[in-house]
Amino acid sequence: xxxxxxxxxxxxxxxxxxxxxxxxxxxxxxxxxxxxxxxxxxxxxxxxxxxxxxxxxxxxxxxxxxxxxxxxxxxxxxxxxxxxxxxxxxxxxxxxxxxxxxxxxxxxxxxxxxxxxxxxxxxxxxxxxxxxxxxxxxxxxxxxxxxxxxxxxxxxxxxxxxxxxxxxxxxxxxxxxxxxxxxxxxxxxxxxxxxxxxxxxxxxxxxxxxxxxxxxxxxxxxxxxxxxxxxxxxxxxxxxxxxxxxxxxxxxxxxxxxxxxxxxxxxxxxxxxxxxxxxxxxxxxxxxxxxxxxxxxxxxxxxxxxxxxxxxxxxxxxxxxxxxxxxxxxxxxxxxxxxxxxxxxxxxxxxxxxxxxxxxxxxxxxxxxxxxxxxxxxxxxxxxxxxxxxxxxxxxxxxxxxxxxxxxxxxxxxxxxxxxxxxxxxxxxxxxxxxxxxxxxxxxxxxxxxxxxxxxxxxx
Length: 460
Ligand SMILES: [Zn+2]
Hints:
The chain is of the alpha/beta class. The chain folds into 2 domains: 36-251, Aminopeptidase; 271-441, no CATH class. The protein is built from 14 helices and 6 strands. The chain has a 6-stranded mixed β-sheet, sandwiched between helices. Strand 1 (36-42), helix 2 and strand 2 form a beta-alpha-beta unit. Helix 5 packs across helix 8 (233-251). The longest helix is centred in the N-terminal third of the chain and has 19 residues, at 2-20. The protein starts with a helix and ends in a 19-residue tail after the last helix. 45% of the residues are buried. Bound molecules: zinc ion. Zinc ion binds next to loops.
């Protein structure tokens, strides 16, 4: 019987997830056998040798070796799965066969393959070549900062820095991490109208919501770079291992644990917000290592997160709560006492706090509105009534209408893809992470103090 009930509950959760989940990026439930999936793309191959040093060394062979060493290093971790766009130089392997055209693998086919494999990141492996033979060092390209798939930029930026940092430990000079925007703004746009990334491997991966990088390891036509870093297998292994370390450093949090078992960095639209909130110590997951992104937020958990963000010293609030359902030893006791004492949240008429009850989206924004208005004393007046343009704005409860208008004006909430606000939907934990991250970034949690202008004249 218990099993039956939990099955029904699971089914209901699934149904509500289908009904409610709507996001900037289509999220598909992923069978996360591996928390981290990386597609490595050894540049060039087949009839395309890439750049060379004029003495027989060229990218086609070198890039593949670096990629294979990188894969071997990454897959020492059982949580990581690596796919390559090619595992041969003549493109006779199965994947190459399926991707190649006219004797080589088209650039867009490489990026799209990363989407097909649901990769957390796509990394194209290259060596550089300069018009003069003086240029040397490593550089990494990552996705530009535009609204289409913002996660690609967010993940790409951190990941590229982490990899370049590891390459630097080998003694390669670090030229930097860079983005590059298309030079054809008339034609090269993402589906939302954003300008595209310049490089096809990056924009084709991004089109499938995968953050893509290009690593230019060293200059193949610079003698000192070639001799120091590219001239034998051990040196290429060092490069592949450094890439792998950079990747793992980024995707593992500093306590050497994956973000959450059910949140995939780079793959889930909310991973940026969840990582942000976790890295700041504002949120933690369940004891089983999951975050439960589509679970609804419970009232006491919202208050705990808010207290964490406001950096309240909760040791002053450990007294016995006036709410009969808030027990003194609970993890939320002090946070509830703080929030209640500051009029940020009230209990129910019947005297209970409502531990375990879900918050709706309109309740969530009302708490934040009261927090900003009454607790922080911020001006919440707004003339921007964009919220009212949403088709379901009128379904907002009267008590929450001002708050909803304010929240949309402040950019805390942008609504679902189908132009609805869902005021009475339960607030999902992933949405809470996004709303609270936005609130903090807009200085609505800890306002920035601007000292007043001195009202006395300065001495002449
Ligand atoms: Zn290349």
